[in-house]
From TrEMBL:
It comes from termite gut metagenome. The lineage of its organism: unclassified sequences, metagenomes, organismal metagenomes. This is quinolinate synthase. Its EC number is 2.5.1.72. GO terms for molecular function: 4 iron, 4 sulfur cluster binding; metal ion binding; quinolinate synthetase A activity. Keywords: 4Fe-4S, Cytoplasm, Iron, Iron-sulfur, Metal-binding, Pyridine nucleotide biosynthesis, Transferase.
Length: 320
């Protein structure tokens, strides 16, 4: 066992000890590194993380993901201590939607229902009517009357996809995820030639030209389920490469190939923000109970309504 492996093993032992002592729960997103996913109590997409946070009885929630995920947990559990391994783990999509500009946009279209993607700051959620994730966005949008005027933000790619599958004409905010924006059509085509029997899986945050090449489009949870249930053995995956850890874990006999980004020779595509979290930072986070997520009380009071509304609707509709 090399030094790095020994270090990870030591951190795992220490983290497990602290977790029990402090009555903490560790929630990790699918885009986290494999070692963090493996030590987490629960691993899932944004919807699952919100659902687990909302019902946990743990005294401390450690959210291994990015900042807006920690905010969502804090909004749902204002009386609990919510920690993140690295406070600088942000989100390019959330950053593309500054709350002051989005608020003005909403005020200019006061007769519109505001549907905000979960990848937003607490302040943006506070001016929204409902929050959605990529898992439930289609079903929630379809729950509105067809003539409902809807603002959808901040992801224009997800918004365009939802418009195309629902026949709606939502007014879209012009934001995007830098990871999903950079997938190369040419490289996907090359991979399809190299692996002619492979199934192309794509996240709806990808550009429409990429989605046209996909055999299946869905959230990270949906992509994982499709791979597990499929009788196919090879998959080309167009989303953040962290999901491949769980795919390979559940389907060790299958092959998963990450789609390379357009401007890189790298064989994968990683979110630098997600990768800021490490086992060492997770250990320190639990030990010192820092960094802690703080959200203004007024923001919590406003933002919790659209989040709770999402969770309530998600419990009553069929999520495919």
């Amino acid at each position: 066992m090399n030094k790095e492996e020994t270090s990870k093993k030591d951190f795992k032992v220490a983290i497990n000890k602290l977790r029990k002592e402090k009555k903490a729960i560790i929630l990790a997103h699918y885009y986290q590194t494999g070692d963090i996913q493996d030590i987490a109590d629960y691993v899932g997409d944004s919807l699952a993380l919100a659902q687990w946070a909302a019902k946990t009885e743990a005294e401390i929630i450690v959210l291994c993901g990015v900042h807006f995920m920690g905010e969502t947990a804090k909004i749902l559990c204002p009386d609990k201590k919510v920690l993140v391994p690295d406070l600088n783990a942000g989100c390019s999509l959330a950053d593309s939607c500054p709350s002051d500009k989005f608020t003005r946009f909403v005020e200019e279209h006061s007769d519109y229902t505001v549907v905000s993607y979960v990848n937003t700051t607490a302040a943006v959620k506070a001016v929204s009517d409902i929050v959605v994730t990529s898992t439930n966005a289609k079903q929630i949008v379809e729950s509105f009357p067809k003539n409902e005027k809807i603002i959808f933000g901040p992801d224009r790619n997800l918004g365009n996809y939802i418009n195309s599958v629902t026949g709606r004409n939502m007014l879209l905010w012009n934001g995007a995820c830098h990871v999903h924006e950079q997938f190369s059509v040419e490289k996907i085509v090359t991979l399809k030639y190299t692996y002619p029997d492979a199934v192309v899986l794509a996240h709806p945050e990808c550009k429409s030209v990429v989605l046209k090449l996909a055999d299946f489009i869905g959230s990270t949870a949906a992509l994982l389920k499709y791979a597990v249930d499929s009788n196919k053995n090879c998959f080309i995956v167009a989303t953040e490469s962290g999901i491949l850890h769980e795919m390979q874990k559940q389907c060790p006999q299958k092959t998963f190939i990450p789609v390379p980004p357009e401007d890189s020779t790298c064989a994968c595509s990683e979110c630098g923000f997600m990768r800021l979290n490490t086992m060492e930072k997770l250990y320190n986070c639990l030990k010192y109970e820092y960094p802690e997520i703080e959200v203004d009380g007024d923001i919590i009071a406003k933002a919790v309504k659209p989040i709770r509304k999402m969770l309530e609707i998600s419990n009553t509709i069929a999520i495919v």
